[in-house]
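Example: Heat-inducible transcription repressor HrcA.
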Amino acid sequence: MTVQLTKRQQQILRATVNHYIVTAEPVGSKALAQRHSLSPATIRNVMGMLEKVGLLYQPHISAGRVPSDSGYRIYVDKLITPSETLRQEVEQLLEDRLQPARRNFETILRHAAQVLSHLSGCVALITRPQTQTTTVRHLQLVPVENQRVMLIMVMDTYETESVLMELPQAPEDNSDPDLVSQDLQLLANFLNHQLPGRSLHELAALDWQELGREFQSYTHVLQTLLSDLIQRAHAASPNPILVGGFAEVLRQPEFSELQQAHPLIHLLEEKQDQLWPLICEWSQHRSGAADAAHADFAHDKISVRIGSENPLTSIQSCTLVSKTYQKGKTPVGSVGILGPTRMAYDKVMTLVEATANYLSHCLSQPA
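Written out as C-alpha cells, the predicted fold is:
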C-alpha cells in the first residue's frame, strides 16, 4: 500500500519517530506540542490519521502512539538523509583507531566490529572476505621433514591456507638435502611469479605445463594439493560472522528481560547460518549474469530490513542494516548492525556505510 503524506503529516510522523527513538516511550500529542509550533489538537488529529493508515499504533488504549514497521519504512525511505559530515568523521575515526592493525585484516575486522557496536549501541556484524573472491598474495614451501614440505598460501586478506605435501621420490644421486632445498626455493620463486593476483577460481584453470621441464616432477603433486585447497574453499560453510556488542544491545529496554534477549542471543551464537543469507544477499547473485540488477543494488545501496521484513522470527522485533564492502569492484563481505526497530536510523546507516567504505579502502591498498 502506497501512502501519500502531506508535509504536515510527514512532519508529525518524523517528530513521533524521533521522539520515540530517544525516549522508548509511547508518544502523546502534548509531548510533541512542546517542541513544535502546533496545537495538541492538531497533532492529535494528524496522529489519528497516521494510525488509521497503519503508520502508528497504540500499544494500550490510554497510551500514546508508537511507530509501526510501515511507519519506520516511510521514515527511512523519505524522511531522513544520512549525514555526509558524520560519515567522514566515522571514516576518520576508524582510520585513527585501526591504523596500527593495518597489516592484519582479521584484526581490522575485529576492531571495526567493536567500534561499530560501541558507537551504535547495537550488535555489529561483519563477515570475513569470502575465499572464492580472494587472491593469492604469496606462497611458501617450507621443508618439514624427509620428503615432506608444507605449502602455505597467503591470501590478499592475509588469511592463510596450508597443507602438507609429499615430495616425489628423488633419485639416489639427487637426494642431498641442500639440493632439495635449492630446488624448493627455485620452485617457490617460480610459483610466486606465476600465482600472485590469481583467485582460487583461476588456479583451478591454470596451465601446469608452464612449470617447465625442471619442475615437471612436482607438477602432479602441486596440482593435486592446490585442487584440494580449492575444493576445501568451495565446500566450506560460510565463515563465522564476527559479532560485537552483546553487552551494548542488552542495555536497550527492548532486551532488558532475558526471555526477550534469548532468541537474539541464540541466533547469533548458534544459528548464524540462518543470518548469513540476510547480511550477504550479494553472495547469492554473484555468479549469475541474469542477477546483475541484484548485484548492482547490493553494491550501491544500504539494505535496511525493518521488523517483519526480516524472514527470521527471532529478529522480527529488530532492524538489520547492512552494506557490502568490496575489493575493487567485487563484493567480498558485508558490514551490518542489528538492533531494535527503535534505532537511530540516520546514524546507524551512516555508521554502516562509513565502515564498509573503510574496509573497501583497506583492501584496495597495495601490499
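The chain has a mean pLDDT of 81.
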